[in-house]
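Hey, quick one: can you model this chain's 3D structure?
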Amino acid sequence: MRNIPLADVDPVARPIVAIGTDYSPGTLLDFHSHRRAQFLYDMTGLMEVDTDDGTWMVPPYSGVWLPAGKRHRVRMNGVSTRSLYIEPVAAPRPSPSCEVLVVSPLLHHLLLASANMPALYDESGRDGALAQLLLYELQLAPSLPLFAPLPRDPQLAGLCRDFLGQPHIRSLPEEWARQLHRSQRTFNRLFRQQTGMSFAVWRQQACLMAALPRLLSGSSVTRTALELGYDSPGAFSSMFRKVLGQSPTAFVRAATRQERLPKPGSQTGATKLTTR
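Sure thing. Here's the predicted structure for all 276 residues.
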């Protein structure tokens, strides 16, 4: 099913409803929620997902897991997506929070095939087997640490939002503490209580989230590293590799290769996709 409203098929008595949707650059899906859990798979662009808990950055060929009833907003930058809407009782991931998930080559192909599933698919046939395999693969998918939780304290949340707009790895906790009229020790304790992580880890996450769209839009590793305040491209690359398991260059090369693959349905698509 392509480009149809979820409301038209949500009542269907099936554990999964699969919809493929194309978005124009700059599309903003304002805050909303779904009765079903959702796995939103980003195929050709970059997504930013905001919830009451924080912000997720979703690079190409990754997906975001949204628990049932989770209020969220999505910013699209020219993407083609596959969405799986899953009944809460069938949800394969127990986390009450959103997660950015790695999409394996197998899961990628399953998601492509899911767009051909009718809403009322035959549960005992091929589509039923496809639905079950999708649930298994979602359960096994590893998560990416691309999350910057927002604190509930209004003043601290304001500083965090400002930082997300202009992240810099050299931003110091004592500067934040001074702006909040707190001692550094009190600030460090407050920050961890409010976000669940230290200021240094949160700052690194925010810088990594800012780096991905820059790298994918063609900015060099050196320019990206220096803009984010790193002492050298090597220091930035070391952090990137530690968190994401590959160098910035390898990450961009893989994403670029995937984005240039033929669109689903082309005669050569199946052969070239296997090289991913």
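One thing worth noting: Residues 222 and 233 are 5 Å apart (CA to CA).
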